[in-house]
Design a protein that fits this description.
Length: 255
Amino acid sequence: MSQWRVIIDDAADGPWNMAVDRAILSEHASGDAPPTLRLYGFSPPTVSIGRFQKLDDVDVPYCHERGIDVCRRPTGGRGVLHDEELTYSIVAGVRDGVPRGVRDSYRYLSGALAAAYRSLGVDAALTARERGKRVGACYLHATGADLSLGAAKLSGSAQVWERDSCLQHGSFVIARDVAREARVFMLDVEAARALATSTATIVDAIGRRPEHVELATAVRTGVEATFAVELCEEGLSDGEQMLARSYVSEYRLDA
């Protein structure tokens, strides 16, 4: 059975979290890091915007007033408010069994996420139909890279590739403050209503708030069972820490 690494990190600020994910990807692409599942959180609450997204999609003064940081991601997509969630990243590549191509790789990697949800009692499945209009909030859009509960979006993910290695990261949303998220992304009344009615959280699905260890265990189990691997808990290498420190300024937004 192949071995992958799992890193269980304490909550950290957005630029550091994004820099660490990018560093793991770079080291894996160079052959110096194993395939890795990383589980982490954000402190303080943070809005991450996609690699090519405009900061104008976010009400930055409101975020500053409410103690919400704003950072950029190495991956694409639209803005995500990271707060009551467990964030995951998977770095793996073609040599680890990840198929080439955006759609196929999303389907392959997201199978583990669906398995994690099912172990929690949530009947998650890959989104069957794309929907949503172009606004700044990720959770107002559904794509084939997302997981849904019926018609409601549960979880979004984003990817970036470096040579034959892929970084995919996303959120297991435990609960959502719709009013605050609508303010962050300056949604009008119609869009805010859509955010409330077309998304779902773990609390919505199972009627309780899972403990952090329960959720982390579900993700680990889903990855091991889906990919037939053994996860071994380790930390970042010295090289990854050095790279992360060099990358962190790329993801910090000072506006």
